[in-house]
Amino acid sequence: MIKLDLNTSEFDDYYSRYIDKLPAKTELRKGFETGKNDIINFFESIPEKKLTFRYQPNKWNVLEVLQHQIDTERIFMYRCFRIARRDRTPLAGFDQNIYVEPSRATSKSIKELLNEFILNRHHSISLLNSFTDQDLSFIGTASGCDMSARAAAFTIIGHDIWHQEVIQNNYL
Q1: 2: helix, strand or coil
Q2: Rounded to whole angstroms, how far apart are CA atoms 121 and 19?
Q3: Which candidate, 48, 45, 50, 69, places its Cα nearest to that of 171?
Q4: Is the C or the N end of the chain the one with fewer CB within 10 Å?
Q5: Which helix (H) or strand (E) holds 94?
Q6: How many Cα atoms sit within 13 Å of 129 on the Cβ side?
Q7: CA dist., res. 60 & res. 120, Å (int)
Q8: Over the stretch 11-24, which tens digit does the pLDDT of each residue have?
Q9: Residue 119: which H helix or E strand, with range?
Q10: Is residue 169 helix, strand or coil?
Q11: Are 154 and 73 within 8 A, CB to CB?
């Protein structure tokens, strides 16, 4: 299954900002593996003094951005799971900003956060490998809009690229 298989009717236009970051031939499961390595290499390359830097007072620091990526993957894989299992119960949205403070990301080392990311990503890959392409094509409702299980998963890897670009452009 590749990104090109997605129809725009499978997700709200808001998620295009992430999905459009992916090349058309991005294979979903391979994209999670490649993305894992890209994230590890990217965050390991950031100088320690930049990890708690904020380019504006109200913006997250680099550690908080990584925690946000981990939390978002958890939420979107939960959406993917529920939708792929044919659960038609509408899934609520979430306020990403309220997750930051209780995550205590700034008190974690980059090594701890990357370990959390790796464990979570392995869980996501395992879950994706348990689904058929038909399962991933099923459409449910998330944040009041139609979303396929595969769109939820593709959003994750595009979201990672989005935040790497934000960090590269604003933090480094």
Answers
A1: strand
A2: 18
A3: 50
A4: C
A5: none
A6: 9
A7: 21
A8: 999 999 999 999 99
A9: helix 110-129
A10: helix
A11: no
